[in-house]
């Protein structure tokens, strides 16, 4: 069977929080107190007139002129006539009837109302009968005893209430003042108008008809338990019937007296029915809430369990009363507002609210919060909800979704969600009839806040809290489905059958309630039989409330208008049934509600508050522990890192030290090798030879004295003087330079510290000598460069001259051109000579056994070729640097060569190749491009890497090109000099 999908219109959810409620008992206009929850049923009528209007034209109020008819209710016109005054009804026999605690305003209004009443204009009495003279049958049966103190009236609060029947304010008066009432939930701020009617103390007779003898006996039985009976409020609300007219037969049979909480029926089986509250057709939801539920809600907040449920025939206004409308919020939204007001007003306690929402549809329980919106009946299947019983929790549904809420808006949203999921359907009497019993349960957990431990924020300060016990109470707000006649529609019939059965069971249980219990504490009827709570889910669920564990407020809704002409007789029967049900409930339900005990610990009954609190504490300690361990870890990590860093630094330092040591050793080796080469082998040091050879050139004049000193520092023996180069011998200037050696030597010696005891040069002296030598080479190479530039420039001018020449200059130009050509040719020859020299040296290195004669021969051939011009002679003297069999220059051998003699020939060959190539490229650049590209040359050199022998001079000079070339040329010259005829090697 497919169930109808919820068809109630979904109103917009509230967009903002409800307005703050006053925290004191100041009266505020009701408008400002209750923000209408948006999701509630849209009012289908506006028949409830303003109270002021009601006062002035009370007799016409129920007619609700100009208002819409409720849907599903036949429209008839009916004029309500006010025909009798309050005095026409019997007054309570005792003069000590309850008097509601009231404000001066209410008292003032009492006076005025009474005055109006005496004038016959009072609206408090409304009769639909035209038999106004007839005395109500129930008049003699209305007994009013002394006030019964109860939890749901002010006496229960310990307030002194003076009771005097004559001063009892009518409900009409209440309605007059209901508008400016405050929505405050403060106990002391509760106005007389909102108090229940129980304070009159006529509990025994409330809801009892004059002729119901059994109820009288029950009344006697319950007289001993007046107090507990005061914990049950039974109210009857009469639904307005906008379309009623006075042409109905039943019109004259009903009388509703709101002031005396009386409903009288003059027809068959009629009687007077007194209740705690009787709300007239013009009483609005706020008044109903104030009188029937407000105090109970407050008690729930204090720790009592409370149950409010609406009972009545279909279409009589149960949902309207419980949910209300946008403009007239019902019991549920007003209760929610009060709950949060109470929390605001109770700073010394902390609260936790959780809400669940279920429905009993066709005897099955559905979780309305777990149902996806729009899922309806055909939606995803829910887990079956079962009812369980617990000695502490009583009967409860499980598994049920509970949502923790923190604001009225949030709570209203949750309930709205449940409303949309609830089953409704159209019936004969109600276009949107609730097809299920709906139960909203709000669980309130609270605990005292005492400075001492824990933490809360108050005025921005952290205040300690004592972890006291948690009190858990529940507020059940139940909108029952309406009893109804069998419908034609099969589905409606099935639903109706379930509804009626469960309501019947409820009636039966209530009728059998006796307050008796067996030895196990199970409720029993007066005959000692068990109550049939298990006969329906509804009674099972209501068992804790009905068996006295909860404060109870029952709102029974009726419709007495003759507007429902077609079913008026049916209505009367249903209405009477409802009235009887209400009377039984009032008489039979005995509530011994007590404040829930405060539970300490984290058990099931301790509530979430305690569990959350302890969870928070354990989480906090966990967090602290984690933070501590994290800090420790971090500290350890930092220590480890610092240690690592230290180790790395040490390692780096060690490496650096090793590298430095190696470098020093390496340098020492180089220097010592140079020195030892010069000293120990008795051969001429390369550097010394450089100086000597450079002195042999035509630029030797620029040779410095320091250069000579370098020779001395390198340990050049006096024997060197015995082997001057041919050029130096031929050149007196160079010879004189050589003669200066001893002088410098002496100077160095005199300076002290330049020589070791064994006569070897110190490191400093050697470095100085090397630097000086380097400078010499730099100078030499720059001279060469200048010459090349000059040659280039003249070549340029020759070309330009060729373009600009006049016919007469031809001969001269051609001559110059020839000269330049010759120069270029010379340079090219030089290059060729250098190449062949290098090649020869290579051969010599490869064939150590080759005789010096062969070399000499080769040398003489080369020398012959290179003597063609000045330039060539210069270059030949410096370019042939062959040291095949003689001592090798350290510059032409890398340190590695020195360390590994086996690899030396190969490396040397490579070096020479590179040198020749470099030189070739250099000259080629200068000649062909016509520009001296110092940078590009240097780049080329650096790209290819300097020959090992040149590296030191290159880096130490700071100028790559000059020293590199200088060194190169010097090296070549040095080697060349070795093949001079006078050279002993
Ligand atoms: N006191 C009232 N004032 C104005 N309109 C009312 C009042 N009571 C009921 N109505 C209107 O009567 C119609 C039926 O009311 P409601 O749905 O509350 O009845 P019900 O008892 O919940 O019915 P059911 O048992 O079928 O769900 C709605 O349109 C509602 O607005």
TrEMBL record:
SUPFAM superfamilies reported in the protein's UniProt record: P-loop containing nucleoside triphosphate hydrolases (SSF52540)
Low complexity bias spans: 103-112, 866-886
InterPro entries, per database record: Kinesin-like_fam, Kinesin_motor_CS, Kinesin_motor_dom, Kinesin_motor_dom_sf, P-loop_NTPase
Protein origin, superkingdom: Eukaryota
One matching Pfam family: Kinesin
Binding positions for ATP per the UniProt entry: 312-319
UniProt entry keywords in alphabetical sequence: ATP-binding, Coiled coil, Microtubule, Motor protein, Nucleotide-binding
Domain (Kinesin motor): residue spans on this chain: 231-588
Comp. bias (Polar residues): 31-56, 119-130, 144-153, 170-197, 620-629, 891-900, 930-941
Ranges of biased composition (kind: Basic and acidic residues): 204-229, 630-641, 911-928
Annotated region described as Disordered, given as residue ranges: 1-252, 620-641, 848-985
Cytoplasm keyword on record: no
Keyword Magnesium (UniProt): no
PANTHER family the record matches: CENTROMERE PROTEIN E, CENTROMERE-ASSOCIATED PROTEIN E
Family designation: Belongs to the TRAFAC class myosin-kinesin ATPase superfamily. Kinesin family.
Protein name: Kinesin-like protein
Organism: Exophiala sideris
């Amino acid at each position: 069977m497919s169930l109808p999908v919820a068809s109630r219109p979904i109103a917009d959810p509230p967009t903002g929080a409800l307005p703050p409620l006053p925290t004191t008992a100041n009266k505020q206009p009701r408008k400002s107190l209750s923000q209408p929850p948006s999701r509630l049923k849209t009012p289908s009528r506006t028949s409830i007139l303003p109270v002021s209007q009601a006062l002035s034209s009370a007799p016409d109020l129920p007619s609700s002129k100009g208002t819409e008819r409720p849907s599903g209710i036949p429209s008839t016109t009916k004029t309500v006539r006010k025909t009798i005054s309050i005095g026409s009804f019997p007054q309570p026999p005792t003069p000590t009837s309850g008097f509601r605690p009231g404000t001066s305003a209410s008292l003032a209004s009492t006076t005025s109302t009474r005055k109006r009443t005496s004038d016959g204009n009072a609206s408090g009495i409304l009769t639909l009968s035209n038999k106004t003279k007839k005395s109500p049958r129930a008049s003699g049966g209305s007994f009013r005893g002394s006030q019964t103190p109860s939890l749901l009236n002010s006496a229960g609060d310990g307030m002194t209430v003076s009771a005097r029947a004559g001063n009892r304010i009518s409900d009409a008066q209440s309605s007059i003042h209901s508008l400016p009432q405050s929505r405050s939930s403060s106990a002391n701020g509760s106005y007389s108008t909102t108090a229940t009617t129980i304070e009159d103390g006529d509990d025994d007779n409330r809801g009892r008809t004059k002729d119901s003898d059994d109820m009288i006996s029950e009344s006697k039985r319950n007289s001993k338990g007046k107090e507990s009976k005061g914990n049950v409020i039974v109210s009857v609300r009469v639904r307005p019937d906008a379309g009623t007219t006075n042409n109905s037969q039943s019109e004259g049979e009903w009388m509703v007296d709101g002031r005396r909480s009386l409903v009288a029926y003059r027809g068959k089986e009629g009687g007077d029915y007194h209740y705690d509250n009787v709300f007239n057709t013009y009483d609005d939801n706020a008044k109903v809430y104030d009188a029937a539920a407000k105090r109970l809600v407050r008690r729930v907040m204090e720790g009592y369990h409370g149950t409010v449920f609406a009972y009545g025939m279909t279409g009589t206004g149960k949902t309207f009363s419980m949910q209300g409308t946008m403009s007239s919020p019902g019991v549920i939204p007003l209760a929610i507002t009060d709950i949060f007001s109470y929390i605001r007003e109770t700073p010394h306690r902390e609260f936790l609210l959780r809400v669940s929402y279920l429905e009993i549809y066709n005897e099955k329980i559905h979780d309305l919060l777990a149902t996806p919106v729009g899922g309806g009946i055909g939606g995803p299947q829910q887990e079956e909800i079962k009812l369980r019983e617990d000695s502490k929790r009583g009967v409860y549904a499980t598994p049920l979704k509970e949502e923790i809420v923190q604001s009225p808006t949030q709570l209203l949203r949750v309930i709205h969600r449940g409303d949309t999921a609830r089953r409704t359907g159209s019936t004969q009497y109600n276009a949107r009839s609730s097809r299920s019993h709906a139960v909203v349960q709000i669980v309130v957990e609270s605990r005292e806040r005492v400075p001492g431990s824990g933490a809360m924020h108050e005025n921005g300060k952290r205040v300690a809290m004592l972890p006291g016990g948690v009190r858990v109470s529940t507020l059940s707000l139940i909108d029952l489905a309406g009893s109804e006649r069998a419908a034609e529609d099969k589905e409606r019939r099935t639903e109706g059958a379930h509804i009626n059965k469960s309501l019947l069971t409820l009636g039966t249980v209530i009728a059998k309630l006796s307050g008796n219990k067996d030895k196990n504490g199970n409720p029993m009827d007066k005959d000692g039989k068990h109550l049939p709570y298990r006969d329906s889910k509804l009674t099972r669920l209501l068992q804790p409330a009905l068996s006295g564990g909860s404060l109870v407020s029952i709102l029974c809704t009726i419709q007495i208008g003759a507007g429902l002409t077609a079913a008026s007789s049916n209505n009367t029967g249903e209405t009477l049934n409802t009235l009887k049900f209400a009377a039984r409930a009032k008489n039979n339900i005995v509530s011994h509600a007590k404040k829930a005990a405060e539970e300490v610990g984290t058990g099931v009954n301790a509530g979430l508050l305690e569990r959350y609190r302890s969870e928070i504490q354990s989480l906090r300690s966990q967090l602290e522990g984690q933070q501590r361990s994290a800090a420790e870890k971090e500290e350890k990590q930092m220590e480890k890192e610092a240690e690592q860093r230290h180790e790395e630094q040490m390692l780096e330092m060690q490496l650096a030290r090793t590298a430095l040591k190696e470098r020093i050793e390496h340098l020492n080796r180089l220097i010592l090798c140079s020195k030892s080469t010069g000293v120990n082998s008795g051969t001429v040091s390369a550097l010394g030879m450089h100086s000597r050879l450079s002195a042999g050139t035509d630029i030797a004049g620029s040779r410095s004295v320091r250069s000579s000193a370098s020779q001395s520092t390198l340990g050049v023996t006096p024997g060197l003087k015995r082997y001057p180069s041919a050029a130096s011998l031929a050149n007196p200037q160079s010879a004189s330079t050589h003669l200066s050696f001893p002088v410098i030597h002496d100077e160095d010696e005199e300076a002290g510290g330049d020589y070791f005891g064994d006569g070897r040069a110190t490191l400093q002296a050697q470095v100085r000598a090397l630097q000086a030598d380097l400078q010499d080479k730099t100078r030499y190479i720059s001279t060469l460069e200048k010459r090349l530039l000059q040659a280039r420039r003249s070549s340029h001018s020759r070309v330009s001259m060729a373009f600009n020449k006049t016919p007469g200059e031809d001969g001269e130009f051609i001559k110059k051109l020839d000269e330049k050509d010759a120069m270029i040719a010379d340079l090219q020859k030089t290059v060729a000579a250098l190449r062949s020299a290098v090649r020869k040296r290579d051969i010599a290195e490869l064939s150590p056994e080759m005789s010096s004669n062969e070399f000499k021969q080769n040398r003489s051939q080369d020398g012959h070729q290179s003597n063609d011009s000045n330039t060539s002679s210069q270059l030949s003297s410096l370019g042939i640097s062959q040291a095949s069999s003689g001592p090798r220059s350290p510059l032409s051998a890398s340190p590695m060569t020195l360390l590994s003699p086996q690899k030396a020939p190969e490396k040397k060959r490579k070096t020479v190749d590179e040198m020749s190539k470099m030189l070739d490229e250099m000259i080629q650049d200068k000649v062909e491009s016509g520009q001296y590209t110092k940078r590009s040359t240097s780049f080329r050199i650096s790209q290819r890497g300097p020959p090992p022998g040149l590296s030191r001079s290159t880096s130490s000079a700071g100028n790559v090109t000059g020293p590199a070339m200088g060194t190169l040329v010097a090296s070549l010259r040095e080697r060349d000099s070795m093949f001079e005829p006078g050279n002993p090697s």
